[in-house]
């Protein structure tokens, strides 16, 4: 495999890493039909070529007591939009897409409705896709001070070996193993990657946003059964919103899939986004960790995290 040429094996490896970047190379190899050594070599090459920009952690803000505002903005001024977002809260993700449109998420501490009105005033052409208060969300973390200590270390390197984390945190390998297993079982916490969509070459990454009228779990399952081979990462659901992260071998097939999804009974609206760049700041998580360290209790209260 040349340094800058991707094939189907690479895409399968990337798809696994986006779901859980801590998956061992040997385990990835069994899933895709390669040796662990070959998988490691391919991951190294994708890091060097910039396809994989970094390994990171994604935590759903409501699980730590925060609200979240999802919006799209018809703009290519990423710097200007981020400045405005920071007047409201902390950026959760910022994704410039083809067609000069930007998909964003803002983490807010409280008063989601008030902050949403502020978004509309600051960014007049913003379209609010969804707002989610911590109390409305199904996501829960219930983390201890020890969990936050390990999380702090994992944010620096999500693929760090357990023995290394143990040395850095002065915690037992048993405690760290148990905590990582707890993280991996929690749908609100994900070990993932940031990739560069521009370097996927003959492959196209895209997201389908679907508004669902009823039985979102059944609809998601039906879509998984038909299009699961094209899933890029775990679908996101909240209220009536379903977001599918997918990839195809060309933009036309991506559009065909979007149209097929649109025709599924129960889906009332779909929209497709083709990302040009992805950023997912973790400042808000780092601040949460600092606040948790000040807690006098083993189980850190939500109010202590996002104060």
Automatic annotation (TrEMBL):
Alphabetical list of InterPro entries matching this protein: AsnC-type_HTH_dom, HTH-Siroheme_Decarb, Tscrpt_reg_AsnC-like, Tscrpt_reg_HTH_AsnC-type_CS, WH-like_DNA-bd_sf, WH_DNA-bd_sf
One Pfam family recorded for the sequence: HTH_AsnC-type
Record flagged with keyword Transcription regulation: yes
An annotated Gene Ontology molecular function: sequence-specific DNA binding
Keyword Transcription tagged: yes
Domain HTH asnC-type, first and last residues per copy: 6-67
UniProt keyword list: DNA-binding, Transcription, Transcription regulation
Protein's name in the database: AsnC family transcriptional regulator
């Amino acid at each position: 495999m040349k340094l800058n040429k991707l094939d189907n094996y690479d895409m399968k490896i990337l798809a696994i890493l986006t779901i859980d970047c801590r998956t061992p190379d040997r385990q990835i190899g069994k899933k895709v039909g390669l040796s662990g050594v070959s998988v490691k070599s391919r991951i190294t090459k994708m890091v060097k070529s910039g396809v994989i920009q970094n390994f990171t952690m994604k935590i759903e803000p409501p699980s730590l007591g925060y609200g979240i505002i999802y919006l799209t903005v018809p703009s290519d001024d990423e710097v200007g939009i981020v400045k405005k977002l920071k007047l409201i809260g902390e950026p959760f993700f910022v994704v410039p897409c083809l067609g000069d449109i930007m998909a964003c998420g803002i983490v807010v501490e409280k008063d989601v409705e008030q902050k949403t009105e502020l978004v509309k005033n600051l960014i007049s052409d913003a379209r609010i896709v969804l707002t989610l208060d911590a109390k409305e969300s199904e996501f829960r973390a219930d983390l201890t001070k020890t969990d936050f200590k390990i999380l702090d270390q994992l944010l620096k390197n999500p693929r760090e070996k357990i023995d290394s984390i143990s040395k850095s945190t002065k915690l037992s390998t048993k405690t760290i193993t148990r905590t990582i297993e707890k993280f991996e079982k929690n749908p609100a916490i994900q070990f993932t990657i940031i990739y560069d969509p521009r370097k996927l070459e003959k492959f196209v990454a895209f997201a389908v946003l679907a508004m669902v009228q009823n039985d979102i779990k059944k609809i998601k399952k039906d879509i998984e059964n038909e299009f699961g081979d094209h899933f890029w990462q775990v679908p996101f659901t909240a209220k009536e919103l379903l977001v599918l992260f997918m990839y195809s071998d060309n933009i036309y097939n991506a559009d065909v899939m979007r149209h097929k999804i649109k025709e599924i009974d129960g889906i009332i609206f779909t929209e497709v986004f083709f990302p040009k760049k992805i950023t997912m700041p973790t400042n808000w998580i780092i601040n949460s960790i600092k606040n948790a360290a000040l807690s006098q209790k083993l189980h850190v209260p939500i109010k202590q995290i996002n104060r």
